[in-house]
Amino acid sequence: MSADGFHGGPPPGAAADWTIDQNWDAYTADEHAVWDVLYARQAALLPGRACDAFLRGLDALNLQRGGIPDFRQINADLERLTGWAVVAAPGLVPDDVFFEHLANRRFVSGQFIRKADQLDYLQEPDIFHDVFGHVPMLTDPVFADYMQAYGEGGRRAMGRGQLHNLARLYWYTVEFGLLDTPEGLRIYGAGIVSSRAESIFALDDPSPNRLGFELERTMRTPYRIDDFQQVYFVIPSLQALLDATLQDFAPIYARLDGAADIAIDAILPTDRVLTRGTQAYAAAGGRLGG
Ligand code: PHE
Ligand code: FE
After folding, report:
1. What is the pTM of this model?
2. Does ligand 1 come within 6 angstroms of the Cβ of 125?
3. Atom of ligand 1 nearest to the CA of 242
4. 39: which of 33, 112, 130, 150 is 20 to 30 A away, CA to CA?
5. Are β-strands 178-181 and 184-187 bridged in parallel, bridged antiparallel, or unpaired?
């Protein structure tokens, strides 16, 4: 995702579009080992939990070759499959820069990897979250189009001062989305698939609400960045998500301007309820499964 607000230009050493060379040769053996630990446990956990598009994408990217992926290799596959590329940045980039990249089918990834004592949690997205979490879905043609459309929509939303509403859509789909399938709920959100604990919590825990995705409802719902989600929104298909966002959001933004937020744990009479959560985890103070 991206950092908020004003920026005076890229940091020293970065290009005008905030990208840097991945400098793959500079990763240390310890850094590659952190990737391998994270990769091994998520690859074992996700069959039967992540959606088919994600698992297919993971295969297509050949990440099992081991170590932190080299973007030159990933991009050869991505380019062939959907015309996307992953580019490195020193950290979070400003919203307008982030959207510009998405609109041109470039996904911005952090270059750094977390330390060995941060395997389970860190707030700033690192290369494991960005590449393992996000890039497999970019091999799916429908999701690939959704992400590009989101980048274009982001630029429009910024111009209208509506970014906080659109950011919720990103959060509840790209980062924390669930997909309904005949075999049961599956994960497609990058924030979930890159987290061992949330890959379990999001599907199995009785605490969170799981509600049918409805575009405007989702954009009225705040989210938390520091703990497991209290509500997940479930889409019927990736195509349905793309279709719902193809409309012009201008009338939606006009309505949202006057609409109150919906409490994060609320269930409305109009919601399609898949799980009425106990909210026990949040009520006990959360703190990531402790
Ligand atoms: N259709 C949206 C608009 O008119 C753009 C958008 C597309 C936003 C896809 C999010 C996702 O602004
Ligand atoms: Fe992310």
Report:
1. 0.95
2. no
3. 9
4. 150
5. antiparallel
